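Design request, tokens follow.
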């Protein structure tokens, strides 16, 4: 079976994707989200992803909480609106680490749950993945996860499994 590394931003966005992809690929979930602030919130979101992976027997890589690196990457972009340049930088930051890990660990494919997010445009995120794929020689599984009933399925599974759903995107600047 082909190996796919799925960058997972949170459980509500990824539960329907994990459910679908675990039958099509040798799936590994990749939790790399140093953008999430504060740390308590980071741990809470991560715990929900761990819970799903354990229940379904899916492998998970718990990456470092490299907040200093992430904070460095968005210096000067603090006042950008959501979906602006700071978010582009944030997508690039997380996907770069995912693609590098995929390459270094012989995954044929990588993907991200980011396009499941309500305000996350596939036409912005997927070109970042495709450019990294070309640069590193790993296939990016480009998908708009919002489509084909997956958002609805994700909402349903989130309620059924009593999964915590956050009220803001992740970084300090997105807390309203
Ligand atoms: S709003 Fe969300 S996507 Fe944008 S920089 Fe903050 S955490 Fe990243």
């Amino acid at each position: 079976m082909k190996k796919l590394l799925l960058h997972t931003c949170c459980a509500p966005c990824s539960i329907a994707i994990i459910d679908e992809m675990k039958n099509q690929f040798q799936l590994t979930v990749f939790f790399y989200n140093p953008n999430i602030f504060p740390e308590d919130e980071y741990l809470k979101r991560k715990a929900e992803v761990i819970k799903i992976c354990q229940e379904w027997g899916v492998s998970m890589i718990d990456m470092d909480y490299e907040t200093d690196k992430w904070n460095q990457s968005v210096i000067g972009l603090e006042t950008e609106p959501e979906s602006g340049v700071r978010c582009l930088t944030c997508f690039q930051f997380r996907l770069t680490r995912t693609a590098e890990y995929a390459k270094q660990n012989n995954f044929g494919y990588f993907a991200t749950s980011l396009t499941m997010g309500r305000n996350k445009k596939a036409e912005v995120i997927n070109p970042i993945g495709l450019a990294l794929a070309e640069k590193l020689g790993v296939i990016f599984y480009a998908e708009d996860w919002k489509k084909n009933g997956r958002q609805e399925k994700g909402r349903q599974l989130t309620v059924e499994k009593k999964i915590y759903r956050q009220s803001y995107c992740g970084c300090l600047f997105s807390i309203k």
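Comment from the thread starter after seeing the answer: thanks! The chain has a mean pLDDT of 97.
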